[in-house]
């Protein structure tokens, strides 16, 4: 199995860490989506032009959620409950909004402007982080390795990119610090 992703992508990182935790036989290949050759590789395998994607023989699986479901099926690992899936949906929504804001900022837009799109993204980020601040201490959350990994990757990416102030979310800050040594966290650190 070959996983393609960016070293700075929290979505690729969560799959790398999940594979490390379960000792799954997955090779990782960094691709730079702004490099012409790497971009061509991405486009050839994923018309949505997103990373990560996984190639397993003749199967190409796109999106971290689909990759996760494929891996738990292939290796007969524990599925998430409906409540846990909802928490993952919230993590993904926050991550997606922050990606959109980062891309807009890099494109020269003032993402702090009082504009509907920016307001909605900032509102979603704040609401989801507030909810996750309450949820991340519950045993149903802490008993799911993929949820812990996904939240850790989001929080560490927020800190890495200086995307928002987490100081008002004490449980999230504590969660991030407590889970900094998850398997694969060092080898997938976007700072290296």
UniProtKB/TrEMBL annotation:
Residue ranges constituting the GST N-terminal domain according to the UniProt record: 1-79
Coiled coil spans: none
Matches recorded under PANTHER family: GLUTATHIONE S TRANSFERASE D10, ISOFORM A-RELATED (PTHR43969:SF9)
InterPro entries (UniProt xref): Glutathione_S-Trfase_N, Thioredoxin-like_sf
Protein's UniProt name: GST N-terminal domain-containing protein
Pfam families cross-referenced by the UniProt entry: GST_N_3 (PF13417)
Matching Gene3D superfamilies: 1.20.1050.10, Glutaredoxin
Species this chain originates from: Pseudoalteromonas holothuriae
CDD domains: GST_N_family
